[in-house]
Amino acid sequence: MNKAKFITFEGVDGAGKSTHLAWFADALRKRGKEVLVTREPGGTPLGECLRDILLNQPMHAETEALLMFAARLEHIEQVIKPALQRGVWVVSDRFSDASFAYQGGGRGVKVEKLEQLECWVHENFQPDLTLLFDVPVEVARQRLSKNTTLDRFEQEKDSFFEKVRQAYLDRCKKNPDRFALINAAKTPEEVKEDLEKEILSL
Ligand code: TMP
């Protein structure tokens, strides 16, 4: 556990990743790590403006992909890489896998186009570990129904989320060294035990 690591949390809306992210970051801090918690889209002043647009304005699927990666470039250069260089661990609520899952799987943007953007924005730079919170879509929907307001993505149909979930699982299968699959349908206590194991593996 010497070099600062970049860890990302992924999953469909309602999978419960954000609830566990704060706990995970604290667990790292208790082990003496300095930790920066951030999110996508967002994480920089420009990224947060783009987040507001992305979550609220209707737009073409490819515009959505371009804006996600534009916000990401700013996030990597202004926040993520400088923190890692200072020895600070970075835990991000979502990163490029979300673009492959939502814009690729959900909206049908061609994977080759997303790969080109990925190569442009962060060639040779990937998270050290990606925790994929996986739950059946109906469980995620039930959890989301407790929210009073839903953004443009959260308002999508179940069929959209099925495609997003599948795209995440495909990406997990293709990158087994980087991904850890978390069964987020378990109780919060059980999920924490699984996360604890992931921390030990770091
Ligand atoms: P959040 O609710 O987890 O903060 O994420 C905001 C939404 O943005 C979520 O519905 C997923 C979506 N999203 C994408 O569609 N593509 C991306 O690349 C990212 C980072 C998020």
Q: Topology, pairings included?
A:
Elements: E1 6-11, H1 17-30, E2 35-39, H2 45-56, H3 61-85, E3 89-93, H4 96-106, H5 111-122, E4 129-134, H6 137-144, H7 158-174, E5 179-183, H8 188-201
Parallel strand pairs: 1-3, 1-4, 2-3, 4-5
The structure holds thymidine-5'-phosphate.
Q: Can you tell me about this structure?
A:
The protein is an alpha/beta fold and 202 residues long. The protein has one domain: Rossmann fold. Helices cover 56% and strands 13% of the residues. It contains eight helices and five strands. Helix 3 (61-85) runs parallel beside helix 5. The structure holds thymidine-5'-phosphate. Thymidine-5'-phosphate (TMP) is lined by residues 13, 39-41, 68, 93-94, 98-99, 102-103, 153.
Structural class: alpha/beta
Distance separating the two termini:
6 Å
Sequence stretches where pLDDT stays below 50 over 5 or more residues: none
CATH class category: Alpha Beta
Mean pLDDT: 96
For the record, the count of structural domains works out to: 1
Tally the beta strands.
Answer: 5
